[in-house]
Amino acid sequence: MLGARGQLGGDLVETGTEHGHEMVGLTQAECDIRDGAAVKRWIDATRPDAVVNAAAWTRVDAAEEHEAEAEAVNATGAGLVAAACAAAGIRCCHVSTDYVFDGTATSPIPEDAAPAPRSAYGRTKLHGEVAVRERCRDHQIVRTSWLYGRQGPNFVLTMLRLAAERPQVRVVADQHGAPTWTGHLAPALLRLLEAGPPGTYHLSNAGVTTWYDLAVATMGARRLQVEVVPITTAEYPTPAVRPAYSVLDNRAWRDLGERPLPAWEDGLRAYLARPDDGRPA
Ligand SMILES: NC(=O)c1ccc[n+]([C@@H]2O[C@H](COP(=O)([O-])OP(=O)(O)OC[C@H]3O[C@@H](n4cnc5c(N)ncnc54)[C@H](OP(=O)(O)O)[C@@H]3O)[C@@H](O)[C@H]2O)c1
Q1: Could you point out which of 50, 55, 68, 247 has its C-alpha 20 to 30 Å from the C-alpha of 223?
Q2: Cα of 8 to ligand 1 centre, how many Å?
């Protein structure tokens, strides 16, 4: 497991261990995926049955000015991991993003829709997908969306922090997506890894919402007395352009006979009920 200190990586290690797997979770300090020789050394030393790559350069806005750094991890590094897996004859499960799509869809996006990223981060993640497909035949690419989990950083924790600092928050209400709790994603991803054939998959909590409604639900769940004001994307310009609509159709997962992931509201409730959410790492 690469990226073990991240939101998803932490839950993958924990969930896999609970399910009886012997999980080896590596941080960047232990294994930098930009260093192909280091990745190979780890694979040779631990002889895993598969590698999950949840390591990524995830600062979406910063990637606009640091695309080469993001590319080194999200594309080149992803390719090095895939090549090391292929050389060892093991499966490479690679995590990707809804931000590879341009946001012009108006209904849930299937796995075979054409990607067209609008941000530097999205471009680097798409290049990573291409590299993984090219370099490791036994690959699974798992796209997910609007992730939150553990100590973040993520949108939900940002809302909780802002609520403590100010009486009003203004939140974009015209971007639609499916917030996904790592606590729901991790077991589904591990099941897919064990039971699913190679290919590209979408895994996200069910339903659709906006950042505004997610903020309202977060404040409501915590009974916080803060006014949430809906605004447009145009009123909140950011360096990276985000898709206006990036709900992922989890079709390939359902076609395996699997149940859809729980509704995003259930994920949020479960996350906010955990005693450790919101605390700094
Ligand atoms: N966050 C979202 O909203 C979102 C949405 C859709 C898809 N995704 C994708 O889901 C995956 C997991 O995201 P996340 O939110 O869990 O990410 P995260 O919390 O930012 O964690 C990413 C981890 O990657 C590690 N990392 C960065 N550069 C590395 C390198 N060169 N070598 C090895 N490790 C490196 C970091 O390690 P250190 O902590 O040790 O520096 C960090 O712990 C990523 O592929 C991401 O693109 C995320």
Answers
A1: 247
A2: 8
